[in-house]
Design brief:
By secondary structure, this protein is of the alpha/beta class. About 40% of the residues lie in helices and about 10% in strands. It has helices at about 15-30, 45-60, 70-85, 100-110, 125-135, 155-160, 185-195, 220-225, 225-230, 255-265, 275-285, 290-310, 345-360, 380-400; strands spanning about 35, 95, 115-120, 140-145, 165-170, 200-205, 230-235, 250, 325, 360, 365, 375. The chain is globular, with a radius of gyration of 21 Å. Bound molecules: 4'-deoxy-4'-aminopyridoxal-5'-phosphate.
Length: about 400
């Protein structure tokens, strides 16, 4: 066989895919599973958005669009940034892509390469690390845990930034921890960044509308205007509008950075799907009432899961302030044994035991560069939460 590109060796396989593969094998064998691994809303895309897509198809909006998005969608995005975040962007400061994922990947590639460091706190989303590795840059990790609410401190950031740092990657609300930085906390990070004018900031705001306390969401470009001039604020319609399959992400930031991203997309992805862009315009400009309706449902699910998991000896849960994830710490289970004698030495061991013996799918912390933690997504029905959490409790109690 011809050889594969050895550059890909630096990219670690996604820990989330491992779990999906194992769960799929069990599903094919007819096992009933209680799935807490899925990182997407279980709601359907609202009717008005689906209708807008149909109109787009019927009116012939089926051709290539501008690589960085249609003028109408950019208008809707500019209005959204102004309305929700108090940020002002002109058309050349906005870029639309086929999901936030490729946009983040290219945004990193545009500012960091070989020899450069990208600073990120852990636990972090698997793909953020993968994107840094794909760009050829090095991830400089700042470890956080349940004790600090999964948030980096300004002192920690100050200790970590160095002359090789090209980029700070922020994600709030966080996948996988649900931590949400307050405006004051972001301003304090901004003060540290003031001493590092050569560092770009990438703010992944994908879960902006899934924040449980009113007016708690803040984004660094808005609270720290000096840093804002070098910040790319990334958002999308996937999580908030239940549009994961439509593949629309967008960003606003410095025109130089946006131009570089556009240049890469010109040669690789091309423009996003024309029909999805029309749907995204409706999502951003149309009625927003379901955002608060869904939020209330997510809050109920979060509280239900937390109240059930309280009965699990050896697990410790922080209350997530946003997104739809809980990241229990399972240090109390380490060194214990399953009834068949298997040793629990890491979150991966416990997650495997949960899946094989109890049919519960979760994601081990290694995928988020942290242990001993694992991730539970509560973007699923109350029935699954009740039965799945009862099984998690049973699993913890079954260990000797
Ligand atoms: N950022 C975060 C933090 C995410 O969790 C995800 C999806 N899991 C994305 C970005 C990617 O979103 P999209 O569906 O728009 O590609």
């Amino acid at each position: 066989m011809p050889r594969l590109n050895p550059d890909l060796d630096r990219l670690r396989p996604s820990a989330i895919s491992d779990v999906f593969d194992m769960a799929n094998r069990l599903r094919e064998d007819g096992r009933e599973l209680f799935d807490f691994s899925v990182g997407e809303p279980d709601f359907d895309t609202p009717q008005n958005i689906r209708e807008a897509a149909k109109v787009a198809i019927e009116s012939g909006q089926t051709r290539y669009t501008a690589v960085d998005g249609t003028a109408l969608l950019k208008q809707a995005i500019a209005a959204k940034f102004r309305r929700d975040n108090g940020l002002d962007f002109s058309n050349d400061q906005i870029v639309v892509a086929s999901g936030a994922k490729p946009l983040l990947a290219v945004a990193i590639q545009a500012v960091a390469g070989q020899g450069d460091e990208v600073v990120i706190s852990t636990p972090c989303w698997t793909s953020h690390i993968g994107m840094i590795e794909l760009a050829g840059a090095t991830a400089r990790l700042m470890e956080t845990g349940i004790e600090t609410g999964f948030k980096m401190t300004p002192e920690q950031l100050a200790r970590t930034l160095n002359p090789n740092t090209r980029l700070l990657l922020l994600c709030s609300p966080s996948n996988p921890t649900g931590a949400v930085y307050t405006a004051d906390e972001l301003a304090a990070l901004g003060d540290v960044l003031a001493d590092y004018p050569d560092v770009w900031v990438l703010s992944d705001d994908l879960y902006e509308h899934i924040v449980f306390e009113k007016d708690h969401f803040a984004t660094i470009a808005a609270v720290s205007p000096a840093v804002g001039k070098r910040t790319l604020t990334v958002n999308g319609v996937s999580k908030c509008y239940a549009m994961t399959g439509w593949r629309i992400g967008y960003a606003g930031g410095p025109s130089e950075w946006v131009k570089a991203i556009r240049k890469v997309f010109t040669q690789s992805n091309g423009g996003p799907c024309s029909v999805s862009q029309a749907a995204a315009i409706e999502a951003l400009n149309g009625p927003q009432a379901y955002l608060s309706e869904w939020l209330a449902i997510y809050r109920q699910r979060r509280d239900l899961a937390l109240s059930l998991l309280r009965d699990a000896p050896g697990l410790e849960c922080a209350v997530p302030e946003g997104a739809f994830y809980i990241m229990p710490k399972c240090a109390g289970l380490l060194g214990r044994k399953t009834p068949s004698g298997g040793a629990i030495e890491s979150s991966a061991d416990f997650c495997r035991y949960l899946l094989e013996a109890f049919g519960v799918v979760t994601v081990p912390g290694a995928g988020f560069l942290c242990d001993p933690y694992f991730r539970i997504s509560f973007a699923t029905s109350e029935d699954v939460i009740k039965e799945g959490c009862a099984r998690i409790v049973a699993a913890t109690r079954s260990l000797a």
